[in-house]
Amino acid sequence: MSIEKVTIPSISSSKMGKEFYTVLSVELGNTTIKSIIITTNIKTNKSYELNKCVDLTRNVDNPGDSEEVFGHTIWNKPLSGQVIEKAVSRIIKKSLSEVGLDVSDLDFVVRSTGVVALSSLSYHMDVIIKSLSNGCLNAGIKPSQMMAPFSINNIPEHIRKSSFFNNIKFDGSIVGVASPKKTGVVSNEMESQLVTAGIKLASKSSTVDYRNPVISIDMGTTLAGEVVDDSKPYGKLVCNYIGLAGGISDIMLRGCDVIEDNMSTIDIADNQNNIQFNEDILHKHTIKLHEFIDIMKVPKNLDEFGQVRIDLTLQKQENINIIGSRINNSKKLITTFNNITQDYTNSEILLQIDDMYAYFIKRLIDQTSKLNIIQPKTTLGITGRAGITGYKPYFIEKYLKNSFDNILFTPDGLALGALMMARCMNSLGTPINPVGGSRGGMCIMQQRIKLSKKR
Q: How many angstroms separate the Cα of 39 from the Cα of each of 47, 48, 435?
């Protein structure tokens, strides 16, 4: 098995030439708000990070008395449109100013959200997306920097020669994955699509060919990701992942008073270097904890699983598999965790959490295998704090040593996916080093163009 950790290298803006395409990704999550500026050399497909700013969602302003609270994060932080706009505008300006950039230096801006624990899926997601857009506009971003181009002349001039816009328009597919006929089956759908695209882009800085068929898993506060087959020319989505991920350890730590109620696992100092551990004991404790965590195919009559919403009508129309995770008894989970870790140091607590999440991913793959939808030569990609930090990659490799040829770990999959979506919207392909297509295969641009002409 090949296991690889990929981190996007940094670069100074002064070193960017005309062949670089620069995108700002702003992301509103349950735990963090991020503004990440990434640039890609279109000729080589290598990406570089210009800057990353991270704020905690719990620290954003509370809505004023006159503001409508339309929803909450899964940690019950109240949100209004005005609150989101202010937070987004502030972090965008901060991320630009820290590296001496201006909005005019950006070729595109993409907004995304991981806040999915909402009571009215379509209405509330629309409010969030609109608020994210308004926050960008308040930061000085032009509408044209957030929209798909209507003609080749709307694509930034310095990158225009690299665009295939006159041959193929954006059809909703992102990096060789067909867009679903009906969107919005699950409320984290966009997040899952971007994560898959982001891991594909990250793979270009590795030795792993992360192209269809693939499985992507985003272990943020909530679980996202998807299983994509090797259909031609576009892979098809065959399964979505939803539910709780990093939020599970947050709940355990809060319940045991290891952290305060408004904190998360990221607030614990990580001093795990050179720690000694017994894998058998860790695994025995992990099995006890997993008694109170459901990982399963989501029944078709449920409109919510693990605090992620499902549109039942659209689910029936699309008939896509959904695998979810949730806590089935939070009181017993917290009590069990407290009994296990009451005499542990913080490093030992984090180590137990690492093994718990590695086994979480094993169970996720086991459930996926039961559906008989994992094709041969499928590559697994993992991102998110509950999937790539600490000893998690080490334990994941142990649990999945016979399941995959390659496993790729990368941070900021969502932000990288935002960059890829921007490139797809502007028809910026790289035939000599393609991101889309099949593992070991050629660029699919000509196949896409032929399909587009038939349509």
A: 6, 5, 15
